[in-house]
Amino acid sequence: MLEGLPGTGKSTNSYFLSMQLEREEKTVKWIHEVARPHPVLFFNEASLTKKEYDSILKEYPNSEPILNKVAVFRKNTIGIDLLELEWNYLNDIGTSFLQALQEYDVMTFSLDKYENVALEKWAYFAEKALENETEVYILDSSIFQYQIFTFLLKNASFKEIEQFFRKLIKIVKPLNPCLVYFYREDTQETINFLENLRGKQFMEWIWERDKDQPYYINKPREAESHKQFLIDYANIAKQLFDKADCRKTSVEITSQDWKTYENELLSFFGAKFKSHPNVLPPNGIFRNERLNQSIEVNGRSIKDPYGKMRTIIPKSNCDFYVECLPVILHFDGTDKIVISGEQICDQWTTFGTQFVRV
User: Fold this and answer.
1) Per residue in 162-187, pLDDT tens?
2) Handedness of CA 141, 37, 86, 324 (dihedral sign)
3) Domain ranges for the chain
4) pTM
5) How does residue 306 score in pLDDT terms, banded at 50, 70 and 90?
6) Would you state the CATH architecture of domain 2-37+110-268?
7) Per-residue CA distances from 11 to 4, 6, 271, 322 (Å)
């Protein structure tokens, strides 16, 4: 479990660690912060009780075959990926049905209701993970960031957050959890780094999105308010790390000596650095007409469908890791890219999506 404020290197080091552990022939599953459907977090996901689910089916009986394809049935709740329905089944289910399901979006739940569905989701994940004891899971931003954000925005006390955190640690304890916490001693340095990286407008956008939450009542406006939120977040995370009842290590990153930090990580996990194969992918532009998106490949870099330049690193002769994403580009000959790995909330990453050379 890799944690830290935004901008402290969680995704970068999750990416590095997943590659290195795979090179040691371990079966690794990196669960990105915005993976979908996420096994422990809630992004665009409805959660219904069995009674609520039956009521929806009664009102929309023709939807049952599709819901059975996308729903996850847990002990007491049913999870439904709303993006999956919107992206791939909207013509079949209709807008009114999707809107009815959106009423059960977990992001709208009260804190008490959230706690219940979240604990059940974590328990379900742990139960499934124990079925394959050789698989290594890497979770970034899952046990600190998402949870602290959720509770802090509701103005929950530290005691409430700590009690919930203890329950999560107890649930994952059978999985032999390891916690890595990235931080700068001066939290303001991380905030300055984040503002330089993403811009003040990004912080203002976050504040605009969340400004109606209880935390922001009677707080300063716009970016300054979100900066205070990050300071409060960092204080809570540090306390939770100190109290975490699991194997753990912290990495102070002020000096930005990432090679040293990588070696610390490898040592902590008992691994050794291994270099990647020396191969190059076919260059060119590959397009998916349905998505109206393209990937441009040039040596060891790509321009993704949003124009962002990303490094790619060989996994094998035909498979390439994508920088800081749990996504693999599989080159099927020289004329096709097939997406594998984990899908995240950008539609181009969906498993099995194909881009054809143009």
Assistant:
1) 999 999 999 999 999 999 999 999 99
2) positive
3) 2-37+110-268, 45-104, 284-357
4) 0.93
5) very high
6) 3-Layer(aba) Sandwich (3.40)
7) 10, 10, 19, 12
